[in-house]
Amino acid sequence: xxxxxxxxxxxxxxxxxxxxxxxxxxxxxxxxxxxxxxxxxxxxxxxxxxxxxxxxxxxxxxxxxxxxxxxxxx
Amino acid sequence: xxxxxxxxxxxxxxxxxxxxxxxxxxxxxxxxxxxxxxxxxxxxxxxxxxxxxxxxxxxxxxxxxxxxxxxxxxxxxxxxxxxxxxxxxxxxxxxxxxxxxxxxxxxxxxxxxxxxxxxxxxxxxxxxxxxxxxxxxxxxxxxxxxxxxxxxxxxxxxxxxxxxxxxxxxxxxxxxxxxxxxxxxxxxxxxxxxxxxxxxxxxxxxxxxxxxxxxxxxxxx
Lengths: 74, 221
Known about the structure:
The structure holds 2 protein chains of 2 kinds. Chain A is an alpha+beta fold. Chain A is built from 2 helices and 5 strands, in the order βαβββαβ. Chain A is globular, with a radius of gyration of 11 Å.
């Protein structure tokens, strides 16, 4: 499933990151790498952006970017 | 005089450390051609002058934003004697990613491990000596807002300038093999000879846009 579909409060594991090379590199730079645990903290209206917790810090990402991140249940 | 640059993620206390080091002796301007603030200052350690340049706060050195480009170009082109990488101890995992990239650039690094008090209150216990041994670099624990570690940092910078080190990261055998092959080509074809060949090889394998462009222009591929 996509990270953008995960409900606040749930913890998931990143399976893959897609997107154009630049966006993908940026997401990887920010710690969204395969195997990393991600907690969805909360959503802004229309789920854009969403706040997540990854590698011990909080990150806000746009819906279009969250759609590029594939996750699985922990 | 020793030329040093301060690098680090946003919000690690870079400005606090810059102010603690340089006090009132600061010069503020812009980086050439862009409206990004450039701060420079001078400090003294037992008679040795240290020039300090504050680089923009960045998460990585991919050069995808103007801040990253400034920091990367400064380190690669101006080749400061020492690069102080300020790491937020309370957020160490993400911060060490930039450290790894700076190591790849073969900068002469000193790690300023700031916010040790915050890390402690979060329940982290960091073995500074072990960290230093693992990465092969000097690590100075600091609580910059209380001025703790500032003198030690100056001392470490002076020491690092006098005995420069070339940090290295070893990847898995497969990756190392690819880097080795690419590095041979880089050396043979003299691609960007002013930069470390291993760094160029890694960036070419990553498909890094800026390095590809720079290399392309030079060799007319």
